[in-house]
Amino acid sequence: MSQAIKSIVSGYVELRDIRALAELLTHRRRTLNQLQAVSGINAASSIDLVLSDIEVIEAGLEQLKPPAGSLPENEWS
Length: 77
Hints:
3 helices, 70% helix, elongated
């Protein structure tokens, strides 16, 4: 996994910027879909990197998730 993505996610978590993390996650998922659709080259290593980025971003979002019962479920989406 990239040290850069760890630093970016850490900064967003510190700022409690859920929207920026969500946008970053959307971008990485879109990139993953594009890489999975590629033919003619072996994109496996790039796919692995994007998957590890997604794990880091999801972990960051999980850190910002409010405690259970503190908000109605529809408030956290």
